[in-house]
Hints:
This protein is of the alpha/beta class. The protein has helices at about 15-25, 45-55, 70-80, 100-110, 140-145, 160-165, 175-185, 215-230, 240-250, 250-260, and strands spanning about 5-10, 30-40, 60-65, 85-90, 95, 115-125, 125-130, 135-140, 155, 190-205.
Amino acid sequence: MPxxxxxxxxxxxxxxxxxxxxxxxxxxxxxxxxxxxxxxxTDNTYETIKEYAxxxxxIKLLKNEKNLGLAETLNICLESARGKYIARMDDDDFSHxxxxxxxxxxxxxNPEYAIVGTSKNYFDENGIWGKAIHSGERTLIDIYxxxxxxxxxxxxxxEALESVGFYTDSPFTLRCEDYDLWCKLYYKGYKGFNxxxxxxxxxxxxxxxxxxxxxxxxxxxxxxxYWRKKFALPKYYDFYAYKELIAGIIPKRxxxxxxxxxxNKIC
Length: 267
């Protein structure tokens, strides 16, 4: 049985997925299985991954007959996972070579934590343009307020994921499945930690914040209201739910200005 199961959902990423795959195959820690599920891509993503799978037996390639979305696709990967630890990866990111080695060491030495994330670089077609240093234990309040983990950077204990029923697959959590997962885990009493070391390059343009659709902000709003009540937090924490809606109506230049202030800030 492998020590780690790496799970990755892919969709129409033929031009980028090779870099992501190679960054996993080139990890210094090698005892892992790499479960990749193609979510009914319409380009040649599946064929590209199949070539890699033919060269490295650690890759297990799955394919959805129809597009199911990220949450259900990741759940399909998890159903096949055999590892003690579950590592996430996205099809357009890059994991630094020692990422798994360092995360496994952390989880082995710190059994009180079920999740370990890392800090990250931001990059686009022009290269690295910023970084986000997230360091230290994340409290329940941190999680609720959105100061949590970069989804494709995390490694988690398999039994913790099993105890919460994996990802919630619902229109209610669309584009918010990671936030919902952290809340479910913390509601069960699990804890997580962010490593200050940058071990992931995260693909995102400088202006991506302008393109977030309002309907996904509505999902975030509803989800925060739900978890505020589940966590029995004071009602004034609803402010963090309304922030989602406010961000959808304020001028985009204000969002960009705020983002520039936050990028490269240590938190």
